[in-house]
Amino acid sequence: METKIQRLGNKRILSLPPELLAELGWDAGDILAAEVIGRGIKFVRPNSKRNVAMRIACRGMKKYRAAFEALAKS
DSSP string spanning 48-59? Predict the structure, then answer.
């Protein structure tokens, strides 16, 4: 599996395929810890209270998306 480092302003972005994210149980908003190992990098998602809360919030937002959109329009 390959990916490409892209530029966004003065930041660099590494995109991960959806299949890989699903396999890892990662999603947008998750906080990752990075560690350099030799010539590579290791990412882990610490099981912090914030990450747990973000996962719960993301599930709720997906489940009730239509209700939130209706509220935003009113």
Answer: -HHHHHHHHHHH
15/66 Cα distance (integer angstroms): 28
**DSSP class of 65:** H
Strand intervals (E) in 1-74: 5-8, 11-14, 33-37, 40-44
CA angle 32, 47, 11 (to 5 degrees): 10
Average pLDDT over residues 36-40: 93
* All domains in the chain, ordered by first residue: 5-73 (2.10.260)
Q: Write out the two tokens for 51.
A: 């990450």
3-state SS assignment for residue 18: helix
User: Which pLDDT belongs to residue 29?
Assistant: 81
pLDDT above 90 for 59: no
Whole-prediction pTM value?
0.52
